[in-house]
Design brief:
The protein has 215 residues and is of the alpha/beta class. The chain has nine helices and five strands, in the order H-E-E-H-E-H-H-E-E-H-H-H-H-H. A hairpin with an 8-residue loop joins strand 1 (22-28) and strand 2 (37-44). The chain has helices at 9-16, 63-76, 87-93, 95-112, 147-150, 152-173, 181-184, 190-199, 207-210; strands spanning 22-28, 37-44, 79-85, 121-125, 140-144. 46% of the residues are buried.
């Protein structure tokens, strides 16, 4: 995996073109078999001319580094938020719709913080806009392939979302220690999958996903 530092070039272009702010958006937990899917958002505007030291896509950072960076990103961003969709919602509506639901909830948090979300541009990591189908009123959503690597607002969103979700899974580890969520955070490690075979799923498991993983 190529490691590179994100920049604010894309955000600056959008701001120069007239956007009052840019909402970087990224998801975590998409491939897990247990726990929620989370979508993080980090807002930047024209006052953001530098980025926190060491900021990168959360997948390129150690757990220790991510945990240290998350509060720094939250202080750096104009606003930040995390939205969640539960394992049951993933089962009921599918992962893509669940991502859209989590993103919509994150926007709701930003709105509650006083951000006029409809005025800005949402910069979404990847090549698929999973947010717009969940919206009652259309917003300006732009997708960006490798945005989590290249765009500081999206990198910040990924760090905030990853630490938020990991913290939730670590807390649940004490209730279900045999699944080793302290280490795997709900992803399908060999220890986790063997524990499911031995003990069955918990309320935090995505039941529809286990059909493809556990015989």
């Amino acid at each position: 995996m190529v490691v590179c530092d994100p920049r604010l070039d894309v955000e600056s272009e959008l701001l120069t073109a007239g956007a009052p702010f840019v909402i970087g958006c990224d998801e975590v937990g998409r491939g897990a078999v247990a726990g929620p899917v989370a979508v993080g958002m980090a807002v930047v505007d024209a006052t953001h001319v530098s980025i926190p030291d060491g900021l990168r896509d959360s997948k390129m950072l150690s757990e220790k580094k991510r945990t240290m960076l998350a509060p720094i990103v939250q202080s750096w961003a104009l606003h930040s938020a995390v939205g969640l969709a539960s394992p049951g919602e993933v089962d009921d509506i599918g992962i893509i719709a669940a991502l859209g639901l989590a993103a919509k909830r994150a926007l709701g948090v930003l709105h509650e913080q006083g951000l006029a979300v409809a005025s800005g541009v949402i910069l979404l990591d990847g090549n698929h806009d999973y947010l717009s189908p969940m919206l009652t009123h259309p917003l300006d959503v732009r997708t960006r392939v490798k945005g989590d690597r290249d765009c500081a607002s999206i990198s910040g969103a990924s760090v905030v979302a990853k630490v938020h979700r990991d913290t939730m899974m670590i807390a649940q580890h004490e209730m279900y220690p045999e699944y080793e969520w302290l280490a795997n955070k709900g992803y399908g490690s060999s220890v986790h999958m063997e524990a499911i075979k031995l003990n069955g799923p918990t309320p935090l498991h995505r039941r529809t996903w286990l059909k493809n993983h556990v015989g």
